[in-house]
Specification:
Strand content: under 5%
Shape: globular
Largest sheet: 2 strands, antiparallel
Helix content: over 70%
Length: about 290
Amino acid sequence: MEVFGVPLQALLGQLLLGLVNGSFYALLSLGLAVIFGLLNIINFSHGALYMMGAYAAWMMMEYLGLGYWWSLLVAPIAVGGVGVVIERLMLRRLYKLDHLYGLLLTFGIALIIEGVYRDQFGVSGQPYPVPSALRGATNLGFMILPNYRAWVVVASLVICLATWYVIERTRLGAYLRAGTENPRLVQAFGINVPRMVMLTYGFGVALAAIAGVLAAPIIQVNPLMGSNIIIVVFAVVVIGGMGSILGSIVTGLGLGLIEGLTRVFYAEASATVVFVIMAVVLLLRPAGLFGRER
């Protein structure tokens, strides 16, 4: 059976691979949306911190003998701690200034982190094995799906939806949103707003680290892995709406599927289709698909 001259098997296979890529887009853009939506910081160091998460997993395996599951737990905490230090020592001084200052600072931090890792490990990739429990593949009839890639999709969706629920549907999320809009009022209720902001930034960074650990067995761990994906992720955030949690999740998954379709019908455009969509969305709806005018 064919669809527009393309075998249905090939079409479904590319859609499934696109869903895997979309899972990474959703998880990374979620961290960006949390940080911008709650702190008004455009975190350009997000890609470098994603790379740090992958390297943290690799170093724990290489030097400490810790497996994938321990890395999935410990690496986000460690990299999130780095994010807490960055927020406390640097970003806290910029909250009352224009967004451009935060963007320039985090861009500089990204260059420093990437430079340190390139100097230490070079630009060649480091292999990271798939955990034994997730090895093998499942025959879906139209393609052979590696079990690890299926795990990435499920894990990303669970993390994204849990984060959305906490921020949009719980009292903690209400405190976070209120703390950014009217910090003095929230402090009057006895809540330490600066500490809450610091931990929120650390959580957004930890989401990037989780994505890095999930990506490590799929792509070789290297210092450039963050810079290769962060521009696409920023496009996802802009299309979904800056600061929109739901917009980041839906747009990330949707653009992954669109990329998969583009590879089937016109492979040459698969690397640029996201930016074409971003340009069209900005022309028609500058706040993004799920964003609100500020």
